[in-house]
Amino acid sequence: MFFKMIRKNEFPLLILLFVVSIILNVLYLYNFYGVYYPIISGYDPYLLSTVTEWTHSPYIHSNSIFSHPGFSIIALPIAIINALVSFFVGSNCANFILSIILMFMYVTEVILLKRILEDYVGLNSFESVLLSVLFGFMAYVLLMSFTPDHFAFSQFFLILYIFLWTKRESSGLHKSSLFLPYIVVCGITITNGIKILLSLLFFKG
Questions:
Q1: How far apart are CA 113 and CA 197, in angstroms?
Q2: How many Cα atoms occupy the beta-carbon half-sphere of 23 within 13 Å?
Q3: pLDDT tens digits, residue range 120-149?
C-alpha cells in the first residue's frame, strides 16, 4: 500500500532520504543516549520532557503555552505511546520513539515539497527533485531530522498544509475544509498562521 503511494521517480529520493536520516539518528542516539534531556533536545528541552512526563510539560506550565498553545495536545498521543512502551521495556523510550517520528516527518515533507513543485508550480521531474534535495540537505533541515524540537513539527505541518491547499482545487473542496488543519498548525506555533497566510498570497484562490 505504501509503495503504491510513491511515484516511480520518487524512489531514489525516498531511499536517499531514509539512508541519511537513519544514519543521523543512529549517530545521535549512539553519542547522546542516556545524557540528561536538556542537552540533546534541540533548542529547548521541552519536547523530550513533554513526551517523558506529559503532566509536567513546559508547554502547559510555562509561558510557552502562549507561543505553542496546542502543542501539548499534539504531543499527548506520543507521550501515551512512550508510557506504554516504557512500561513494558522498563526504560524511557522517548528518544527512540521521537527518532522514528522525526525520520518519518523529514522524509515525508521533502517528498511533499517535491510534489508541490512538480504538480502545482509546474517544474519538471528533475528540477523538482533537485530543489527538494537542496531543501532536504540544508543544515537546519537536517538538524531537525534527528534533534527533538517543536520546529520539526512546525516544518512538517506547514509543508503538509500547503500540499493540502494545492490539492483542494483539484478535489473541489471548499476553503473551509482546511480550517481545522489551519488551527492545528497554529497550535504548534502561533506564528505558523502568519506564515501560511503569507505563503497563500502566492497561490491561486
A1: 18
A2: 7
A3: 888 898 999 999 999 999 998 998 898 888
